[in-house]
């Protein structure tokens, strides 16, 4: 009988970003693009059309990470700022050198059952929740993470 895994217990980290209190992760997707598959690529004798579908590349989505704002979550904004151009310094950025290896682990009880590994992760956007006087809501931060590839390791 197969073992079913819940998606409720998970942990995300990226080279040095290890103590982030995450509420939700979404958007993990990869797909192959097809070249030449939607129309004929040529015509042969007797007017016969030739079609061919070829892998054109791979498109990766972005991961959206929603977390509770804590002292440790400041690391996400600091990482975002390092990766993006500074307007007052002539556009200097350290985006290439600040890409990281990311991991998403899914647990069943205390044991890791599934792990995804993400290559070249980098923050593409950063936002906070709305501020409302008298609200009982926790302050949250949302960071969108780009990546070049992901693979299931477990």
Which tags fit this structure?
extended; two-stranded antiparallel ribbon; 1 helix; 154 residues
Describe this structure in words.
The chain is mainly beta. The chain has one domain. It contains one helix and eleven strands, in the order βββββββαββββ. It has one helix spanning 74-83; strands at 10-14, 22-26, 30-35, 42-43, 49-50, 54-60, 63-68, 100-108, 111-128, 140-146, 149-152. The strands form three sheets. Strands 1, 2, 7, 8, 9, 10 and 11 form a seven-stranded antiparallel β-sheet that branches. Strands 3-6 form a two-stranded antiparallel ribbon. It has a two-stranded antiparallel sheet with strand order 4-5. The longest helix has 10 residues, at 74-83. The two termini are 18 Å apart. 13% of the residues are buried. The model has no long low-confidence stretch (mean pLDDT 84).
Distance between the termini: 18 Å
The SSE order reads EEEEEEEHEEEE
Largest sheet at a glance?
Answer: 7 strands, antiparallel
Shape call: extended
The secondary-structure class comes to mainly beta
Beta-sheet strand percentage? over 45%
Spans of at least 5 consecutive residues with low confidence:
none
Radius of gyration equals 21 Å
Query: What's the number of extended β-strand segments?
Result: 11
Q: Average the pLDDT over all residues and give the rounded result.
A: 84
How many domains? The number is 1
Which percent range fits the helix content? under 10%
Count of discrete alpha- or pi-helical segments spanning 4 or more residues: 1
